[in-house]
TrEMBL record:
Pfam families, alphabetized: DNA_pol_A_exo1 (PF01612), DNA_pol_A_exoN (PF18305), HRDC (PF00570)
Any one GO molecular function term: 3'-5' exonuclease activity
Keyword Transmembrane: no
PROSITE patterns: HRDC
Disordered: region residues: 1-23, 317-341
Protein name stated in the entry: 3'-5' exonuclease
Domain of life: Bacteria
InterPro entries: 3'-5'_exonuclease_dom, Exo_C, HRDC-like_sf, HRDC_dom, HRDC_dom_sf, RNase_D-like, RNaseH-like_sf, RNaseH_sf
Organism field: Marmoricola endophyticus
């Protein structure tokens, strides 16, 4: 028998210095996998069970982003203490049939993760929260380095989540069992996470900040983007107003087709095809098909519509051609401030490091302290006031008008006031030397 005290030179080290940490156990469903709610009778059972429960309701929704034109909810997951998990298939119901669900949900706080992503599709089916707790937003205010749901489950519940179905096509029917389990797990410990984060917010003196943020999220309604077709990838390659008009016509035609078929626009033709056609301006189907990107089913099937869209762009009078770019109502890019307005540049240079330091002290990301756009707009054209007290009042009014919350104004307002009143002089440029 070999002497264990004398290992051979090539023997592996049995106690490596870099031993891997054991993996956390997987998060599992406490009550098993529920069947999807697809009938009025099953919905009544879910409503009764949720009514018997107590406290906040964990809510999540699954969409078919990347597959469908619409942003509708294809599954709604619900869980409440004293109740169980319910997976409601909204596609199986008319919106009016979901009214009993709203009645019970309309009496409780909703717990969502990244609520702004799910609220629009929930509202579309008649579900609206009376109050809200957003676990992602709470984690941001507390300075968590990773705020995804899986990261919070690991940090707060010491469990690991699978995320293999995050990009699935949730419009698929029937939904595979593994997908349903994935969806149910998204609300399994959401209320537990809410309670732990709420306690941390209280301890850190940030509970009021969170309440103001949650109320803002609940009240916010997205504003439709002006000229969304200008976000076509590769748009910067297009030259001339008529070619830009062609991008618009092709984009709007594609969007109409996508809406008709309820598929994501990129599955009809990619942005690169729009840019190629707008640049070449082919006048007939044959010339169009010669272009790169116009050989697939979507490109060929709607070739006549693409040619017609390009013809509309050709027929537009000069006066109706879109401008090469939209006039911005905001300040120029910060890199141009020194030339355009040195005083404004000095104000921004004074405020930025102070806000960054405040964020570090409070363990709050700078963008959550106050959005960079609000800071830039305020320092580019600050309010004019006689005394410092007058300036404080004018600043608070201006910031509130730009959607800043009271807690943000109280913390960042003094920094902006100081930058307006006493901007740091620009650092002198180092003299250049010649050898």
């Amino acid at each position: 028998m070999p002497d264990p005290t004398h290992a051979t030179p090539d023997a592996p080290d049995e106690t490596p210095d870099t031993a891997e940490e054991p993996q956390l156990p997987l998060l599992e469903l406490a009550d098993g996998l529920p069947a999807p709610v697809e009938s009025v009778a099953a919905l009544a059972e879910a409503v009764a069970d949720l009514t018997a429960g107590t406290g906040p309701i964990a809510v999540d929704a699954e969409r078919a982003s990347g597959y469908r034109w619409s942003a509708r909810a294809y599954l709604v997951q619900l869980r409440r203490a004293g109740s169980t998990t319910w997976l409601v298939d909204p596609i199986a119901f008319e919106t009016a049939e979901l009214a009993p669900l709203q009645q019970v949900m309309g009496e409780a706080e909703w717990v969502l993760h990244a609520a702004s992503q799910d609220l629009p599709c929930l509202r579309e089916i008649g579900l609206e929260p009376p109050s809200l707790f957003d676990t992602e937003l709470a984690a941001r205010l507390l300075g968590y380095p990773r705020v995804g749901l899986a990261a919070l489950v690991e940090a707060l519940c010491e469990r690991r989540m699978r995320k293999e179905h995050s990009a699935a096509d949730w419009s698929t029917r029937p939904l595979p069992e593994s997908w349903l389990e994935y969806a149910a797990l998204d609300v399994e410990v959401l209320v537990e996470i809410r309670h732990r984060l709420a306690a941390e917010l209280e301890e850190a003196g940030k509970a009021q900040w969170a309440q103001e943020e949650f109320a803002h999220t609940l009240a916010h309604r997205p504003v439709p983007r002006t000229d969304p077709w200008r976000r076509t990838s590769g748009m910067h390659k297009v030259r001339g107003r008529r070619s830009i008009a062609a991008v618009r016509e092709l984009w709007e035609e594609r969007n109409a087709i996508a809406q008709e078929r309820d598929v994501t626009p990129g599955r009809i033709i990619p942005d690169a095809s729009i840019v190629a056609a707008a640049t070449a301006m082919p006048a007939d189907r044959g010339s169009l098909r010669a272009l790169r990107g116009f050989h697939g089913r979507g490109a060929d099937r709607y070739a006549n519509r693409w040619v017609a869209a390009l013809q509309r762009a050709r027929d537009l009078p000069e006066s109706d051609l879109p401008p090469t770019s939209l006039r911005s109502d905001g300040p120029p890019p910060p890199r141009a401030w020194s030339d355009r307005d040195p005083e404004a540049a000095a104000r921004l240079a004074t405020a930025r490091p102070a806000i960054a330091a405040l964020g570090e002290d409070l363990s709050v990301p700078v963008e959550n302290l106050m959005t960079p756009d609000v800071v830039r707009r305020t320092l580019w054209q600050p309010p004019s006031a006689g005394t410092e007290a007058d300036l404080d009042a004018a600043l608070a009014e201006q910031l509130a008008a730009r959607d800043a919350r009271p807690w943000q104004i109280a913390l960042v307002g003094p920094i902006l006031r100081e930058a307006i009143l006493r901007p740091a002089p620009p650092e002198p440029e180092e003299p250049t030397t010649t050898e």
